[in-house]
Design brief:
The protein is an alpha/beta fold and 373 residues long. It has 16 helices and 15 strands. It has two domains: 2-146 and 358-372, 3-Layer(aba) Sandwich (Rossmann fold); 149-353, Glycogen Phosphorylase B (Rossmann fold, 3-Layer(aba) Sandwich), CATH 3.40.50.2000. The strands form three sheets. The chain has a six-stranded parallel β-sheet. It is globular and about 60 Å long.
């Protein structure tokens, strides 16, 4: 009934999200098929035996010509995919907004605005960017994503802390795009605020393959502001879902001073783990984050700087995103360590995350399909 024109030859968020959504739909009894492709070794390694079996089954199923889904993206392997269903859908996420609309759109945004597929924006933010670019509002629906369900399953079995007297602050990044994730801001604010405190540790989980870039950022901070006592650990290892859940549940707080995000499952996962989160209330994460369930960072709206998107796409119409205020990050970092309300705020975050399960995503998608059919 539902065909995902998405393969598993690349280990990235598109494959991860597709697997989570397709697996949930499959459990609900919906026939699933996916693009036949090679399977990236990392995917085979981190998937469970059940998941690997499902992927193999889906690839042998004949593609449904009823409902077909792909990701809208400027990467050519995704951009060039064609949909041939009775109803076609494209997931859409964007990390920045446009401050002008009088210039010719780049090829990705032009296609997203003008093709006939129904857009599945992962957040109201992404939907509004599409509308501003000229896409008819009636051709867009918001379908938020879900968090890692193993976080809830393992929540009551939180792992023991390695050092009971140390406060662990987790930051998730990708060394291919550290500027967008605000890793430079995270390191600077952490080192300046806790320069003489050895009872705090920043854990930087890298989803890319260039941890030396993060090391260079740390060395630059040391050169500019001097040596610091708190430890910074870089984790470049690929983790499976269970290991990721355990990582979140072993932390005391979460730091996300990003500049641009279309939705940010990594932050939603932190909410689900009941962590106090430092973040700007900007972009896609405002789908679930508000002033009551996190520690908001002050920010300015500035032109988009160097990032993965600007390296591979010539973006027009003056794209802008958030620039976190380092002093504000420092102040909120201090609060997630000392504020007596931090557990109450984290509880609100966890309650919010419960509304964003993959079951909820699947039900919204199926309802939309019925409504449009």
């Amino acid at each position: 009934m539902v065909h995902f024109n998405i393969g598993f030859q690349h280990f990235n968020s598109f494959a991860d999200i597709t697997l989570s959504l397709a697996k949930t739909l499959d459990k609900m009894g919906i026939p699933i098929s996916v693009e036949q492709s090679e399977i990236a070794p990392h995917i085979t390694r981190i998937c469970t035996e059940e998941e690997n079996t499902l992927i193999a089954k889906w690839m042998t199923n004949s593609p449904s010509n009823l409902f077909q889904i792909k990701w809208s993206h400027y990467w050519k392997p995704y951009f060039l995919k064609e949909l041939n269903g009775h109803l076609n859908f494209e997931f859409f996420a964007i990390n920045y907004e446009f401050t002008k609309n009088d210039e010719e759109l780049d090829y990705w945004m032009y296609d997203a605005v003008n093709n006939s597929s129904h857009k599945l924006a992962v957040s109201e933010y992404s939907k509004n960017v599409l509308i501003q670019a000229g896409c008819p509002a009636e051709n867009i629906s918001v379908i938020p994503l879900g968090f890692n369900p193993l976080i809830s399953e393992l929540y009551s079995k939180k792992p023991q802390k390695k050092k009971p007297n140390v406060t662990y602050i987790l930051h998730m990044t990708n060394s291919f795009d550290v500027y967008r994730f605000g890793t430079d801001v995270a390191i600077q604010a952490f080192c300046q605020e806790f320069q003489y405190d050895s009872n705090l540790e920043l854990i930087i989980k890298d989803g890319g393959k260039n941890p030396e870039i993060i090391v260079e950022l740390i060395m630059d901070i040391e050169n500019r502001f001097g040596k610091f006592k708190p430890r910074i650990e870089i984790m470049p290892k690929f983790l499976n879902k269970k290991e990721l859940a355990e990582l979140y549940l072993s932390a005391d707080a979460f730091l996300a001073p990003f500049r641009g995000e279309g939705f940010a499952i990594k932050i939603l996962d932190a909410f689900a783990a009941g962590l106090p989160v430092v973040m700007p209330l900007y972009g896609g994460p405002t789908e679930y984050a508000n002033a009551d369930n996190c520690y908001p960072i002050a920010y300015d709206i500035i032109p988009v700087g160097k990032c993965y998107d600007t390296q591979y796409l010539k973006i027009s119409n003056s794209p802008h995103w958030a620039e976190p205020n380092v002093q504000s990050v420092r102040e909120q970092l201090r609060k997630i360590v000392t504020d007596s309300r931090r557990f109450q705020i984290a509880k609100k975050a966890r309650d919010t995350a419960d509304l964003f399960s993959w079951e909820a995503t699947s039900k919204k998608l199926l309802k939309l399909m019925r409504d449009l059919f």
